[in-house]
Amino acid sequence: MSSPAERVLVIGGGVAGLALALDLADHRPVTLLRPASDDAGASRWAQGGIAAVLDPADDTEAHVADTLIAGAGLCDEAAVRFTVAQGPAAIAWLLELGVPFTRDPRPEAPYPYHLTREGGHGARRIIHAEDATGRAVIDTLVARVEAHPHITRHPTLTAIGLLADTSGACRGARCLDDRGEETLLLAGDTVLASGGASGLYRHTTSPCPTRGEGMLMAAELGARLMNLEFQQFHPTCLYDPQGAPFLISEAVRGEGGILRNRAGERFMPAIDPRAELAPRDIVARAIDAQIQHDGGEHVWLDISHLPAQTIQHLFPTIHAHCLGRGLDITQAPIPVVPAAHYSCGGVVTDLEGATEVAHLYAIGEVAATGLHGANRMASNSLLECLVFARAAARALRQPPLDWQPPEPLAPATGPAVAPDTIAALQEELGEVMSRRVAIVRDDAGLAEADSQLRELGERVTHLWHHHRPSPALASLWHSLRLARLTVGLAQARRESRGLHFNRDCPDTATEARPSTIRLGDLD
């Protein structure tokens, strides 16, 4: 049986968490928290693919340059170069594991697998598994993880806080099972792979979005958070008020999809020379402006001009899903709206995923590595998950020599909070963020959000300190404080840059500076 110092605790079972667990488990025992909800998380719903320099005609410098442009001056170039350089090896690793990427059958194909192009990319460099890449990668990694003898999985535990010793080093996590019973999981090193904060908003592209819980748990131990104000809204989420969220991949536009307004007119060429393939922040704002101008609720994404066979071959999942909702995309345009999709900010890390808290790592969307800057370029997210998961796994091969147990926790007391009460408060939070801190912002709206979140925070603080914790209450407690930190950074950024657009300061400052904040900065 392994000792606590030998174990690595991984919180989250998307692509980042699974990849790290699998790459590390031959060297150290891994405990993986992967609740059932992770099967409906952001990784599984990633349709488009993974960006990497794979075509012989493409090159690293071009991918770096495209990423830096999309990041609007806030990318860390060293992080960009590191990620792009590691991309081909990460794809080779997935191929070795058996991920069924879509092949290119053409005899003259420069690369054995089909490469598509997405917004911001100057070349075809997106490797994909039809239009369900996330599902293909997740299924492959899960099968390997389940078969590995040194990975212990806990599907019924939810982390609600991190444990610290007297020096402030992370020593594991405080968890609750599905009955609300508490379990302490001790570990020599802990890795957050818990996802982003799109769930702070009412409408997202994921059926089961995270709300930045991991970011806030890291902040509770003293970690810095960076660039929280840069929340990416995917331009094209299927508009269907009666159905669950469903992303329409950027690859649809990469293969020739055209955005049209309510009158059927194409509008993107007049806004940006890259038209439908402009970076996501530009496309999302353009769609939002069209909706506001037309007084409608969506715009149209039209790919019906392509041969039906081509659409069905490239986008079988999207085609089948839309058919299930009564829409044949080979014959009619798709109604789409922007929806909260990806958090470009998160926990500050180095190039090995290490945070400023000893023995605490963060990888994937929960982390702020410097790769994305003020706007993430399409399909760089799964690339980041893989590259930093493998980098962190290399850094974690040896157990720490400074193990000491965490400080004891006070026992949880008090009555439980009714689930309906928590859900109503979470919905109130989402409404504030969606109305005042979304695609287009202004000073008055941010001030209103700050005031409303302060008042909401007083109510949530009382619940947290006087009631028995539950996973839902913990999520509300974490997400409320993260929302307040996000608003604070949005107010402090006196410019418009990338995903942060403020009507009252629409110009971009000449000097680009990332923004950082700590939990102690909340007053």
How would you describe the overall organization of this protein?
Helix 1 (15-24) packs parallel to helix 4 (133-147), helix 3 (77-97) crosses helix 10 (380-395) and helix 5 (213-220) crosses helix 13 (471-492). The protein has a five-stranded parallel β-sheet, sandwiched between helices. Strands 18-16-11-19 form a four-stranded mixed β-sheet, with helices on one face. Among the domains are: 235-338, Succinate dehydrogenase/fumarate reductase flavoprotein, catalytic domain (Flavocytochrome C3, Chain A, domain 1), CATH 3.90.700; 419-521, Methane Monooxygenase Hydroxylase, Chain G, domain 1, CATH 1.20.58.100. The protein is of the alpha/beta class and 523 residues long. The chain is built from 13 helices and 19 strands. Residues 8-382 form the FAD-dependent oxidoreductase 2 FAD-binding domain. Its EC number is 1.4.3.16. Residues 501-523 are annotated as: Disordered. Residues 427-508 form the Fumarate reductase/succinate dehydrogenase flavoprotein-like C-terminal domain. This is L-aspartate oxidase.
